[in-house]
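Input chain follows. Return structure tokens only.
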Amino acid sequence: MDKGTPDKGAPTPFSERFRGFMPVIIDVETGGFNPRTDALLEIAAVTLDMDENGDLVIDSTYSFHLDPFEGANIEQSALDFTGIDLNSESRIAVPESLALADIFQAIRRKVKQYECTRAIMVAHNAHFDLSFVNAASERCDIKRNPFHPFSCFDTATLAGLAYGHTVLARACQLANIEFSNREAHSAAYDAQKTAELFCRIVNRWKHMGGWPLPQASEPEESDTL
């Protein structure tokens, strides 16, 4: 049997881990804070696998530079923060529709592979990324957005619980994950580091006995019955 191919008729451990959801790590870089009016400039997605021990591991990364949609607003302060140079000759950008189609197709394959019901977005301050992906999906008239429309896993919250810090760079340091501030604010880099952090937290919880949950023991028969 090929690696990662589930047995028919038996639910995969991955499909049982998150109530049928397939976590996919996303990071976006944008031209502002408003998903309806501001440009989506970069997007990256990281898919996961589960090894034979039930630990999450990073699978594949998909990343794109994007052409701003027609009429998009781009704040100079956002470009200064991310370091994105829209006029750089090395910046090979594609339309939103092409990038989302490729990423969504890869996610759907992964959802099917592990017999999950749908994808759920994992991101740092996740509702921000989810709002931009949902807005772009609507602009591109994509009918089959694989992500849950409003639920998500937020690594800022998880890191606050696990390490007492919500900033990605600091949380990675506390989790003993190498982090370069020079490479940060690239969608591909931030998505990969967010994926490492998510896996580290989920796996640590499992190693502490948090999943799978211990099976409740059968109640003993009462001698009085």
